[in-house]
Amino acid sequence: MASMMDAELKEMTQEERAIALGMTTEQLNGRTMLIEFDEDEAERFTYPWAPDVDFNKRTELDTDNLTATQVNNRIRDLMSEGYGSIVIQNPRGKHALGVGILNKLNLIVEGSLGYFGVGLIDGPTVRINGRVGWSCGENMMSGIIVIEKNAGSTFGAAIRGGDLVCKGSVGSRTGIDMKGGTIIVGGDTGAFSGFMMQRGRMVVCGNAGKNLGDSMYDGTIYVGGKIQSLGVDAVPAALTDLDKAWLARKLTQYELMPEKGVDHFTKIVAGKQLWNYDNLEPAEKKLIL
């Protein structure tokens, strides 16, 4: 078999051999990373093993005497039984509840969650009628999460898609390493929000702490209040009519539209001076580090 492979390789051109051996390089400069989806290709939007659920089929789950693992397993069992609306009662700040739900689901939490609530989800709509701890919605891929009160730090860390909404205020490092989707904060956000942001949009209706957008690679941040300071390579940009239309639609959708509208929002984007970081002089690197 090996000799046959060697013989085939000898008959190929250098380019064909490189492709066959997986040794090619791909030029990305000037190419778009936009992915076009075909809405008729259902297999690209759902998991083949995901159970069919009926949103009109509703049940309550009392979690008072259950561990987080037991709660998450019970949610999966209920979805397999066709329940499309599940109400979590007495969560009492448990950590890691609702993590890894890869299914369409209407999940309602009557109370507050601890750390890592509803992270790694792909599809559900979640409403939390309380507060959440650190890292809520981390690595969220799609769906909607709405928190009625406040959230802790690293809110929406590495989010990839969907809408993550906190109607109150959040801690520091909101949207750190954000890769897509939308984060909306009805109140204030802490320091280093949007740190190393790569894509997506973040909306802060209140004030933003120091070093906003530090080292952001791409994406957009809108702030309705005061900005304590901008981070490295984060710069103001013109608020366009398209920006205003998008802000008005999103904030109205989640009942967070300010009385004075959206004209006062400040738009922050990447200056893109760090895109060629390795080409900077040592003195410039010292300024950044």
Question: Would you write up a description of this structure?
Answer:
There is one protein chain. This protein is 17% helix and 22% strand. With 289 residues, it is α/β, with parallel strands linked by helices. The protein has an eleven-stranded mixed β-sheet, covered by helices on one side. The longest helix has 13 residues, at 68-80. The N and C termini lie far apart (53 Å).
For this entry, give a set of tags:
disordered C terminus; 5 helices; 17% helix; alpha/beta; globular; 289 residues; eleven-stranded mixed sheet; single chain; 22% strand
Ordered list of secondary-structure elements with their pairings:
Elements: H1 2-11, H2 14-20, E1 54-62, H3 68-80, E2 83-89, E3 106-110, E4 122-128, E5 142-147, E6 163-166, E7 179-185, E8 199-204, E9 220-223, E10 234-237, H4 241-253, E11 266-270, H5 282-288
Termini Cα gap: 53 Å
What fraction, in percent, of the residue positions are helical? 10-25%
Nearest-angstrom radius of gyration? 23 Å
Major sheet size, sense and barrel closure: 11 strands, mixed
Strand content: 15-25%
Number of strands: 11
Oligomer: single chain
Strand order of the largest sheet: 1-2-3-4-5-6-7-8-9-11-10
- How many alpha or pi helices? 5
The poorly predicted ranges are 284-289
Structural class by sheet pairing and helices: alpha/beta
Mean pLDDT: 89
SSE order: HHEHEEEEEEEEEHEH
The shape is: globular
